[in-house]
Amino acid sequence: MRRERKNDFYYIVIFLFKNILIYYNKTMPIDYNQSKIYKLVSNKSGKEWFNITTTARLCRRLGVHKLNYKKGNKQDKLLKEIMDDDDYYIEFVEDRPCKNKEELNKIKHQLNVTVAT
């Protein structure tokens, strides 16, 4: 009986902690000065897909890509090909501070055009 209460308490604490983190992440303002360019590289084909993010850790960004891939969410064709290989890694390219979302999107568009040509 006593052991069950400890387990219940543990799960309640974990649940509350996860919800606090989710709330914290949703309310945090985006710091565009921390923008960075990264790439996903396939070890099998050598294909590279470039993008820009404001996420502090690239491992978190990779986790989001993996989750979207598993859910079947719409993705860039090249990104999907790389993730289909199931042998890829994420790599930091350079810091690219931005002033706002518009500037970030402009850089993102330039990356896609440059890679496509």
Question: Which secondary structure elements does this structure contain, and how are they paired or packed?
Answer:
Layout: H1 2-27, E1 36-42, E2 48-53, H2 58-71, H3 77-85, E3 88-95, H4 101-116
Antiparallel strand pairs: 1-2, 1-3
| Structural classification | alpha+beta
The domain tally reads 2
How far apart lie the N and C ends? 66 Å
Judging by the overall fold, what is the CATH architecture of the largest domain?
Answer: 3-Layer(aba) Sandwich
Number of helices, counting only DSSP H or I runs of 4 residues or more: 4
For the largest sheet, list the strands in their spatial order: 2-1-3
Mean pLDDT: 80
Give me the count of strands.
3
Order of helices and strands: HEEHHEH
- Sketch the major β-sheet: 3 strands, antiparallel
**Quaternary organisation of the protein chains:** single chain
> Looking at this structure, what is the CATH superfamily of the largest domain?
GIY-YIG endonuclease
Beta-strand percent range: 15-25%
Instruction: Give the C-level CATH assignment of the largest domain.
Output: Alpha Beta
Radius of gyration: 18 Å
CATH topology of the largest domain: GIY-YIG endonuclease
Approximately how much helix is present in the residues? 55-70%
Q: Which of globular, elongated, flat, extended, rod-shaped describes the shape?
A: globular
Low-confidence blocks of residues: none
